[in-house]
TrEMBL record:
It comes from Saccharothrix syringae. InterPro entries: P-loop_NTPase, Sig_transdc_resp-reg_C-effctor, Tscrpt_reg_LuxR_C, WH-like_DNA-bd_sf. CDD domains: LuxR_C_like (cd06170). Residues 747-809 form the HTH luxR-type domain. SMART domains: HTH_LUXR. One of its GO terms (molecular function) is DNA binding. PROSITE patterns: HTH_LUXR_1, HTH_LUXR_2. This is LuxR family transcriptional regulator.
Length: 809
């Protein structure tokens, strides 16, 4: 070993000088420590002198004895050159003590150049230049120091992370050893030891180099020397030298720090204020260099700084780029930061409106909050003129449908804006308001309607038309083809048109469109729209009997946004999930959804009856038959009161009849079956039928429904029975067959002889209603009631109302 050579030389020649040079982290101090240990073992006196920037003067009052001396001077480059010359001169002038002088000095410093030039011709001078580790050196060091057997690729990775710096490599291996001890994982994980090593390396560098190191860490990449110099507050030449030194110590490459953990460690000791100042400098530098607005903005956000000038930059440049990459969280952050720098009311209102529009499809509550703030700057009427679709949508979600229609009406009356489509969309969500539309409160003209109006009209028609309106389905489909993407203005209308297709029996078309719009919304990263379109897709799959697909889509829709973000609409995907799980026999899965809390206003919307229908089937399936029957009747009561009593919305009569049969109430079930048959006949027309044909038709339908539901009541699968009856068609009458059960009640044979209108009048009269009350209930004239009764008496061969009550009462 070298020490043995030096010891032999010093015994013969009295003095030896060894200069150990290398870059920071090359292992100079470690080598001096090995020399000191060997010297003590050999009987040398050992004296260690450590130089730092804080004590740069070397003392020269050395006392020499005749005992061999190893004199180690570490970090000589920190000492002032005058004291270095004096110190080395005094050691070399000693003629009595055998001395080995070992000087540790960093390369590429003035002290290194001077000391090597001075000693180069000295006859007892030796020089060791420590170089970086190699991959083989890393593997050998790992075996020696940590008993780690590294694979070649692991040794190469340690070398890459440390840049060959011995101290950094030691800490990388220390973290690896610690991780292996804790978890048994055979991997390289940078942790606390590496962080400390990087911080120690940085602490030993000159202040200017440290400033450059931090500047590069904040920049995220070295960039140009000019950019680094501007951020660090140094000259370009100083920045270049510092970057070279950071590369020499193994931290930096041409593309930045060797690992993000190194950059993180460099910034660890910065105060919050220092970090903010650096980020602001970076933002100013990047903006001056014409960098991307988003790159500038991220540093502004980190600096938490904005003023009037920066506010305009954020709103008009940064937001556009953030929108382009669909980073809505960043958009919201940018706009909120810009808002702090805006001083004019007009600028503040504009920013708040942008925030509201962005959040409408991401966080509806944040959207409402932004509009509320904007209303303190701009008038509410003005906001409704500008953003009526978004504002109406938020009110619908929160259960304020009637108020939304009132607002839209006021806005229409106060200007030339026609908001009929928006009003109709609201009415489609709250069917109680459709009566006003049917009475002509909204424009119902076919000419000149926008595509949004067409889609809103299709849902309103599907809800109110007694039959499946093929024209409404056709118009909805044509309108949907005109929208390749959803926006905050068109998304509610698209969802309405998709629902109209489902109600019109076009579930396959609706499902195809819904999947397309859901996928597009996912690409745009707008979860609210994605959730709504996915929910409609689930409903379409349920109608087509694809129960597992429906359950998966409903679950997906509910997971995309919170219940609060869904608002009253949450009832529909919950209902779909419940029905889909029940259809597959998964009662536990249905229970997870049926007990979820709902907004109070949900039963004012069209989603409430759908939920009641689903919950009724859940109660029926779990043995709570009376609770299920109550849900079905509540569902029917709402649909009847709103005038949207359609089986396409919820076939509550069939379900309730099944519940009654489960309870053994055949009369009640037959009444509901008769009502359902009456609805079917209403679709076919209310004209006079041939007595035989009408009687055969009603009998066949009634017997089919009755026998199916009786079997379901026995097996406990009313939901499956209802689905099978609906799948068989509401209008098409099956071929006559011998039913399993015959329905013999006290009045069915009489009712078969009457038309639908006559039956309605006859039953009311038999229950004791006066002609005036009957007329009011059926919205017909008293004269019409009297005519129906006259024909009823003739067909049934009755003398009058008293006999009618005896036969049908």
């Amino acid at each position: 070993m070298l020490f043995d050579v030096l010891r032999t030389e010093v015994e013969a020649r009295r003095r030896q000088v060894l200069v150990v040079s290398g870059r920071p982290g090359a292992g100079r101090t470690a080598l001096l420590s090995v020399f000191a240990e060997r010297a003590r073992s050999a009987g040398f006196d050992v004296e260690w002198v450590g130089i730092s920037r804080f004590e740069p003067t070397l003392r020269t009052d050395l006392r020499f004895t005749r005992t061999p001396l190893l004199l180690c001077v570490d970090d000589l480059h920190h000492a002032d050159r005058a004291s270095v010359r004096s110190f080395v001169g005094s050691v070399l002038a000693n003629r009595t003590t055998p001395v080995i002088l070992v000087l540790s000095v960093r390369e590429a410093t003035e002290t290194y150049r001077e000391i090597t030039a001075e000693l180069r011709d000295h006859r007892h001078y030796h020089h060791i230049s420590l170089t970086t580790l190699s991959a083989d050196g890393v593997a050998a060091f790992a075996r020696t120091a940590f008993s780690l057997a590294l694979k070649p690729e692991q040794a190469a990775e340690v070398l890459r992370l440390s840049g060959g710096n011995l101290n950094l490599a030691r800490m990388v291996l220390a973290d690896c050893d610690s991780q292996a001890a804790e978890t048994g994982a055979d991997c390289l994980v940078l942790g606390h030891a590496f962080n400390q090593a990087v911080r120690l390396v940085i602490a030993k560098l000159e202040p200017q180099v440290r400033a450059v190191a931090r500047a590069i860490a904040v920049l995220g990449a070295p960039g140009t020397p000019r950019a680094v110099a501007d951020v660090a507050g140094t000259g370009v030449a100083e920045a270049e030298r510092a970057m070279a030194e950071l590369g020499a110590v193994g931290l930096l490459t041409d593309t930045g720090y060797r690992h993000p953990a190194a950059a993180e460690a460099v910034l660890t000791d910065l105060s919050l204020h220092e970090a903010q100042v650096l980020h602001l400098r970076v933002a100013e530098t990047l903006r001056g260099l014409g960098a991307r607005a988003l790159d500038v903005t991220r540093h502004l956000v980190a600096a938490d700084h904005v003023d009037e000038d920066w506010s305009g930059f954020l709103v008009h440049e940064a937001v556009a780029q953030a929108v382009a990459v669909r980073d809505w969280g960043l958009v919201h952050t940018i706009l909120r930061l810009a808002l702090r720098g805006a001083r004019e009311d007009e600028s503040r209102a504009f920013i708040l409106e942008r925030i509201a529009l962005v959040q409408s499809a991401v966080d509806p509550d944040a959207c409402c909050q932004a509009f509320h703030e904007a209303a303190t700057v701009r008038s509410e009427l003005d906001l409704w003129h500008r953003y009526s679709p978004v504002l109406a949508e938020q009110m619908v979600r929160r259960g304020r449908g009637r108020e939304a229609v009132a607002k839209l009406t006021v806005v229409t009356e106060s200007g030339d804006t026609d908001l009929a489509a928006d009003r109709l969309l609201v009415r489609g969500e709250y069917p109680a308001l459709l009566a006003e539309w049917l009475e002509g409160a909204d424009d119902r003209a076919d000419e000149g309607r926008s595509a949004r109006h067409e889609m809103a009209w299709s849902l309103a028609t599907a809800l109110t038309s007694p039959r499946r309106d093929r024209e409404a389905a056709r118009r909805a489909t044509n309108a949907l083809y005109g929208f390749p993407h959803a926006t905050e203005e068109t998304a509610p209308a698209i969802a309405a048109a998709l629902t109209a297709l489902v109600y019109a029996g076009e579930s396959e078309t609706a499902g195809s469109f819904a999947e397309r719009f859901a996928e597009d919304s996912a690409r745009q990263r707008v979860p609210v729209w994605q959730a709504r379109f996915t929910a409609v897709g689930a409903e379409a799959a349920l109608r087509r009997g694809r129960h597992r697909e429906a359950a998966a889509k409903a679950t997906r829709a509910l997971s995309l946004i919170s219940t609060q973000a869904w608002g009253v609409r949450v009832a529909s995907p919950i209902a779909c999930a419940v029905l889909a799980h029940l259809a597959t026999g998964d009662r536990a899965g249905a229970a997870e959804y049926v007990n979820r809390p709902l907004p109070a206003a949900v039963f004012d919307s069209r989603h409430g009856p759908v939920y009641l229908y689903a919950r009724g089937h859940f109660n029926l399936a779990t043995g709570r038959v009376r609770a299920g029957l109550a849900d079905f009747r509540s569902c029917g009561r709402l649909l009847v009161d709103w005038g949207v009593d359609r089986e396409s919305v919820a076939p509550w009569r069939l379900a309730a009849a099944g519940a009654l049969l489960t309870l053994g109430d055949q009369d009640g079930a037959i009444d509901l079956i008769e009502e359902r048959i009456g609805q079917v006949e209403a679709v076919l027309g209310d004209g006079e039928e041939a007595a035989g044909a009408g009687r055969d038709r009603r009998s066949a339908v009634r017997e089919q429904v009755f026998s199916t539901l009786v079997a379901a009541a026995v097996s406990g699968d009313v939901l499956g029975a209802v689905d099978s009856l609906l799948a068989g068609g509401q209008i098409t009458v099956p071929a006559p067959r011998v039913p399993r059960y015959k329905i013999e009640d006290r009045y069915s044979s009489y009712l078969n002889k009457l038309s639908r209108s006559e039956r309605q009048v006859a039953l009311l009269a038999a229950s004791g209603c006066s002609n005036r009350n009957i007329a009011r209930s059926l919205s017909v004239s008293v004269s019409t009631v009297e005519q129906h009764l006259t024909r009823t008496y003739r067909k049934l061969q009755l003398a009058g109302r008293q006999e009618l009550r005896a036969k049908l009462g």
